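Lecture 7 notes: from sequence to structure.

We start with a single chain of 67 residues. Read the sequence below before looking at the structure.
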Amino acid sequence: MKSATVDGKKVFFEGNIIDKSSSPIYIPENEVGIDEGYYTNSGIVTLLRMHKNEPETIQFIADMLEE
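Now the structure, written as tokens:
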């Protein structure tokens, strides 16, 4: 996963272009091992794939998407 600073915010994404069609989702400091920052849709998909066998992490991501 790649990261870049956009408007002073650390944004995580996959591919070569940051998807600006939707607002990045903020992931705060946490205990499940995900870096704090803003994630594009492609970044969230990558997180889900990386942690597919970790129910607590998947639940945390789901909670962040719901907010």
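The longest helix spans residues 55-66. Keep this in mind for problem set 3.
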